[in-house]
Write a structure and sequence with these properties.
The structure holds 2 protein chains of 2 kinds. By secondary structure, chain A is an alpha+beta fold. Chain A is about 55% helix and about 15% strand. Classes of the chains: A alpha+beta, B alpha/beta. Bound molecules: adenosine-5'-diphosphate and magnesium ion (MG).
Chain lengths: ~425, ~220
């Protein structure tokens, strides 16, 4: 029998046995819904990781030293590293924080860090208002500041600010201040020094932030040039670490850069320097592993659901075959081969599997919509759809195979005499 | 020689041995119209099913159109059945959910002929048995006689050389029985070989030769 006829026959049988068909269909739909949901989340997760890796830069390593680097040392260091490497130094932010003042108003304590222009080479997810530091600022130890501001809608989220307001000493959070006044090109007082705000970095909302959790900004900071940081607080040279971030742009040069970093720091600060080099690719690996472990759990559930669905199909196909034994006999008498009978039941089950898959995907999509943090961020992947349909078809095929084969190998005369 | 059997044996082992066919030898020429008569349970249906390759004998030889059929694969049996044999049953054995047209077309669905040729031929056959007005009805909407005519048309679909009819008039009134006999006689005149089991001497009288059976033997 040709495929269109097999499908028409299958469809007619499905319609003729609505209740039985529905049970199979339902079982498969539940299984596929679970799969579709899981795979969509997985696909989203990998896409997120992919985007993170893109924005984080290739060949990224980080380490720290307890010494401050001069700009001459910075240049020497940079020249040792592979060509086109981005080298960023960031000071620790001082664990007691700073209370800046704006027009006689004290601002809630916040972190103050010294950075280099290369800070913005990677992970730059901000909207920049004004300008960022340039090498002139570094050279001149300019009193310029860039402030980081988190989005306003997150105002109520208390997890953002470590420094809560002190009731005895009413201060205003910098965030609050920036919502009220445009601080760009305004003067703020930090310690004894007056700084000009040259730039404002708007932090993206958490749900739009493509960076890994560990790379996000949990606290809004004031940034000033690296050299200025030590200039206004000379004693900090001995107290605080410098965080070093190296991005070579190519994964295969990361190891070289790591070796060069160790030898550079030793040549500058002595053999007792034992920098702990962290490879960003390990972090990525960890994230993928976590995603994978989670996925495995969910796929297992999907798998169980599919087995349940498959057994449903098998059960129904079995019942269908018993009730249609006579029909099988008639078809054999009219010249149907064993293959014809086998295919007839397989195609019928797979048609059901296909419909079940389609319904399951709708169901899974509904579940996604309900659970997604942000629907606009959801990406639609065709491979998930294709895979879900294939899984649905394959399951129904697999579980219908045994009963269909039982039907096919019935002796024509026995089937025909069956009442 | 369309059919040639020698010492056909069919033994059922259910508790004790039952010799449903007990050494049947038989030859049927091309173009013959043969009726088979005998008391109930004497093995007529068993014989017909073996001749139609629906069943296999326990022993003996059977040549269909000169081809030995003893050790052939199921796929070949199916093909021989499809190409050479048309069945007509006492209980019609139509597909209850298919229309008359689709019932007549069904054997062609398995024969590999071009799809677009199937329905025109089915329509032609419906006309040949006088049911062109009923082609979109289902079997439930037809009388017994009409059902059997659908079955006859279906049996002819793949242009077989042999028609096997097991009590085709067993469920019909005498008028309808006569119609079916006339139809079979017409087909026989066009060259088809027909073997028909019947209980009715008047129907058997309409055939060229009658084989009498008793206790699994030809008498
Ligand atoms: N599948 C079977 N198992 C056991 N005995 C059978 C089977 N089919 C037929 N028989 C027996 O074989 C004998 C011949 O049956 P059948 O050929 O149907 O007779 P008829 O068609 O002449 O009435 C009967 O006694 C019947 O009971
Ligand atoms: Mg009988």
């Amino acid at each position: 029998m040709k495929l269109p006829d097999l499908m028409l026959t299958g469809w007619a049988e499905i319609r003729a046995h609505k209740m039985r068909s529905f049970l199979s269909f339902f079982a498969i739909a539940i299984g596929i819904a679970t799969f579709f949901y899981t795979l969509s989340i997985l696909s989203q997760r990998y896409e997120d990781i992919d985007q993170t890796v893109k924005i984080s830069g290739q060949g990224r390593i980080s380490t720290s030293t307890s010494h401050a680097l001069t700009m001459t040392q910075y240049q020497d260091f940079l020249h040792l590293l592979p060509a086109n490497t981005s080298l960023s130094l960031v000071t620790d932010w001082g664990n007691w924080g700073t209370s800046p003042w704006y027009k006689g108003q004290e601002i809630t304590k916040m972190g103050l860090v010294g950075v280099l222009p290369s800070w913005r080479d990677v992970d730059f997810v901000y909207r920049l208002e004004g300008r960022f530091f340039n090498w002139q600022d570094i050279e001149n130890k300019s009193r310029v500041a860039v402030i980081m501001v988190r989005p306003r809608e997150k105002e109520a989220d208390s997890s953002w600010s470590t420094y809560g307001p002190d009731p005895e000493n009413p201060t205003i959070a910098l965030e609050e201040l920036t919502y009220r006044h445009n601080l760009l090109n305004q003067l703020i007082q930090i310690g004894q020094e007056t700084f000009t705000v040259v730039g404002i970095l708007h932090i993206p909302p958490v749900k739009d932030d493509p960076r890994f959790l560990s790379n996000r900004d949990y606290i809004s900071l004031i940034q000033i040039p690296y050299t200025t940081w030590y200039d206004i607080q000379p004693s900090y040279r001995d107290y605080f670490e410098t965080n070093i971030r190296i991005v070579t742009g190519q994964e295969n040069t990361a190891n070289t850069a790591a070796t060069q970093t160790v030898s550079f720091l030793r040549s500058q600060f002595g053999p007792e320097e034992k920098p702990d080099i962290q490879f960003f690719r390990d972090t990525v690996k960890d994230y993928i592993q976590i995603a994978y472990a989670e996925l495995k759990k969910m796929l297992f559930l999907g798998f169980i659901a599919m087995i349940a669905g498959g057994i449903g199909i098998m059960n129904v196909t079995m019942a269908v075959i018993y009730s249609r034994t006579k029909e099988i006999g008639i078809r054999r008498a009219l010249g149907a081969t064993q293959w014809d009978i086998l295919f007839q039941f397989l195609i019928e089950a797979m048609l059901l599997g296909f419909c079940g898959s389609a319904a399951g995907m709708l169901l899974g999509y509904g579940a996604l919509l309900r659970t997604a943090e942000d629907v606009s961020q959801m990406t639609f992947s065709w491979w998930v759809v294709v895979l879900s349909v294939l899984i649905g078809l394959f399951t129904s095929f697999l579980f219908a195979l045994y009963p269909a084969w039982q039907a096919a190998k019935l002796k024509p005369i026995d089937a025909l005499k069956y009442e | 020689m369309v059919i040639q059997c020698k010492d056909l044996l069919k033994i059922y082992f259910s508790g004790e041995e039952l010799h449903a066919l007990d050494g049947v030898s038989l030859s049927i020429q091309k173009g013959e119209f043969v009726s088979v008569m005998g008391p109930s349970g004497c093995g007529k249906s068993t014989l017909l099913n073996i001749l139609g390759l629906l069943d296999q004998p326990t022993g003996g030889e059977y040549f269909l159109n000169g081809t030995p059929t003893a050790r052939i694969k199921d796929s070949v049996r199916s093909r021989l059945r499809r190409q050479n044999i048309g069945f007509i049953f006492q209980s019609f054995n139509l597909m209850p959910r298919l229309s008359v047209l689709e019932n007549i077309a069904l054997p062609m669905r398995y024969s590999g002929i071009e799809r677009k040729l199937i329905l025109p031929r089915a329509r032609e056959l419906a006309q040949q048995v006088g049911l062109e007005k009923k082609i979109y009805n289902t079997p439930q909407q037809l009388s017994g006689g009409q059902c059997q005519r659908v079955a006859c048309a279906r049996a002819l679909a793949n242009r077989p050389s042999l028609i096997l009819a097991d009590e085709p008039t067993g469920n019909l009134d005498s008028k309808s029985s006569q119609d079916i006999l006339n139809l079979l006689q017409q087909l026989n005149q066009k060259g088809l070989t027909i073997i028909m089991v019947t209980h009715d001497p008047k129907i058997a009288a309409g055939t060229q030769r009658t084989i009498h059976m008793k206790d699994g033997k030809i008498v």
